């Protein structure tokens, strides 16, 4: 194992770790004991479900409550927890629990996995993350437990509270609500303030990122002391929740009673960040509403969080650079700090990758399945953003379309740059440069 670690880069270890967990999860879900019918579930469907769980997406072929036994649901929630925490973080937690020393190579891999700025203190920081995850998920389950226990009895209600707390915090979007309507998500709790608030807070907290947590815990309300990245994440996240909430409230959900309208609008703005639960009928939304949701899904959450997508920081950097061009400034900036050129290049690369995956995946599925393009783009955005919101076409897709979604979810979770660094050979930097010649753009 040590020899393998020395041969692989941290990026390669991350992508191979995710792949190994996905494959193992698919094989476990194939077992007859995992399905309520007692039969073997087809491998491709298990692979899609396992990928969706590990990549904390929520796109499914089968209704989770109706198809999978408690054993199968337990496999899914373990996969979600591993995917949300990160394979490397889980491996580090096991190593720490066993009392073994963590090597410098392992520390470097942990740094890349959680997007930490430096290797120093990474073990202590990982401990902080693990404690935070346990406390937050237990609190979430405790808040929701009375509601679910009241509806389903003690045993099943407690299991539902734990399952949904982990699923929401990890931004996964899997649900096991057994109300007799398949793929109904949380629509039965559309006007329930406890479930709405608990799920939304878990989604937001999980999507803020572990470094932002540390800033909040260390500095409290003294926002000026926060790192620039934390300020950007909190500002952009707030804007991406507030603006869509106003739109959904006035233009998409005006037909609902006020309570459902308010909670539905707020929930629908939060859930694309990248959780995948829904409390309103997504098919009843206009194409404008569906495309706004698609854009929110692609943007996703913060780096080093349980969320996927291109990340709010990537979106913020692109906006800042565009603003700098409009204002004829040399560099983009945030809160009195300049953005370096390497960050801009990385952001542009990630932005291009996600937009390309979104468009190409949607177009391919639309052509293969002969379905409306907007519907397929919605599904594509949900997969690449690792969200899980769906207009209901996933169960009916053919094998090739399912493989496209699997690839999109995988790339969306491990991260565009991680995949690039893992697959492309490193090039040596040289002092020589090619001659410059201008090219007109715009």
In short:
The chain is built from 19 helices and two strands. By secondary structure, the protein is mainly alpha-helical.
Tell me the layout of helices and strands.
Layout (H helix, E strand, L loop, with lengths): L1 H6 L2 H21 L12 H12 L9 H4 L2 H16 L1 H11 L6 H10 L8 H31 L1 H16 L23 H16 L1 H10 L8 H25 L5 H13 L16 H13 L12 H15 L6 E2 L2 E2 L2 H29 L3 H12 L14 H16 L1 H8 L19
Antiparallel strand pairs: 1-2
Helix pairs in contact: 2-3, 2-5, 2-7, 2-19, 3-5, 3-18, 5-6, 5-9, 6-7, 8-9, 8-10, 9-10, 12-13, 12-14, 14-17, 15-16, 16-17, 16-18, 17-18
Distance between the termini: 51 Å
Helix content: 55-70%
Strand numbers in spatial order across the main sheet: 1-2
Low-confidence stretches: none
Strand content: under 5%
Order of helices and strands: HHHHHHHHHHHHHHHEEHHHH
Total number of helices? 19
Describe what this molecule looks like in 3D.
The protein is an all-alpha fold and 442 residues long. It has 19 helices and two strands. The protein has helices at 2-7, 10-30, 43-54, 64-67, 70-85, 87-97, 104-113, 122-152, 154-169, 193-208, 210-219, 228-252, 258-270, 287-299, 312-326, 341-369, 373-384, 399-414, 416-423; strands at 333-334, 337-338. Strands 1-2 form a two-stranded antiparallel ribbon. Strand 1 (333-334) and strand 2 form a beta hairpin. The longest helix has 31 residues, at 122-152. The chain is globular. The termini are far apart.
């Amino acid at each position: 194992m040590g020899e393998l670690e020395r041969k692989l880069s941290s990026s390669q270890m991350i992508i191979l770790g995710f792949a190994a967990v996905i494959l193992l999860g698919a094989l476990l879900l194939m077992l007859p004991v995992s399905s309520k019918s007692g039969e073997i579930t087809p491998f491709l469907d298990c692979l899609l479900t396992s990928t969706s769980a590990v990549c904390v997406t929520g796109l499914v072929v089968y209704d989770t409550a109706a198809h999978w036994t408690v054993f199968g649901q337990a496999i899914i929630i373990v996969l979600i927890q591993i995917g949300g925490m990160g394979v490397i973080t889980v491996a580090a937690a096991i190593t720490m629990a066993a009392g073994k020393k963590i090597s410098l190579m392992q520390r470097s891999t942990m740094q890349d996995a959680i997007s930490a700025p430096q290797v120093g203190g990474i073990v202590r920081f990982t401990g902080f993350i693990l404690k935070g995850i346990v406390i937050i998920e237990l609190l979430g389950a405790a808040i929701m437990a009375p509601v679910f226990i009241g509806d389903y009895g003690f045993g099943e209600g407690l299991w539902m509270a734990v399952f949904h707390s982990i699923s929401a915090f990890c931004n996964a979007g899997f649900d096991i609500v057994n109300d007799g309507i398949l793929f109904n998500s949380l629509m039965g709790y559309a006007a329930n303030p406890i479930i709405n608030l608990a799920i939304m807070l878990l989604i937001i907290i999980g999507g803020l990122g572990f470094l932002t947590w540390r800033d909040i815990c260390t500095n409290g309300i003294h926002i000026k002391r926060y790192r620039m990245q934390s300020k950007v994440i909190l500002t952009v996240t707030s804007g991406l929740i507030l603006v869509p909430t106003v739109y959904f409230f006035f233009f998409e959900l005006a037909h609902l009673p006020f309570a459902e309208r308010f909670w539905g609008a707020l929930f629908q703005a939060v859930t694309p960040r990248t959780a995948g639960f829904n409390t309103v009928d997504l098919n009843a939304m206009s194409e404008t509403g569906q495309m706004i949701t698609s854009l929110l899904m692609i943007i996703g959450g913060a780096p080093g969080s349980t969320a996927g997508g291109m990340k709010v920081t990537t979106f913020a950097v692109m906006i800042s650079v565009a603003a700098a061009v409009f204002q004829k400034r040399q560099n983009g900036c945030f809160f009195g700090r300049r953005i370096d050129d390497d960050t801009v290049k990385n952001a542009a690369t990630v932005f291009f990758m996600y937009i390309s995956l979104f468009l190409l995946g949607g177009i391919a599925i639309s052509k293969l399945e002969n379905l409306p393009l907007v519907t397929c783009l919605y599904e594509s955005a949900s997969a690449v953003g690792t969200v899980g919101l769906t207009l209901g076409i996933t169960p009916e897709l053919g094998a090739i379309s399912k493989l496209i979604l699997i690839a999109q979810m995988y790339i969306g979770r491990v991260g565009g740059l991680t995949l690039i660094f893992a697959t492309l050979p490193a090039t040596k930097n040289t002092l020589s440069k090619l001659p410059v010649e201008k090219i007109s753009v715009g």
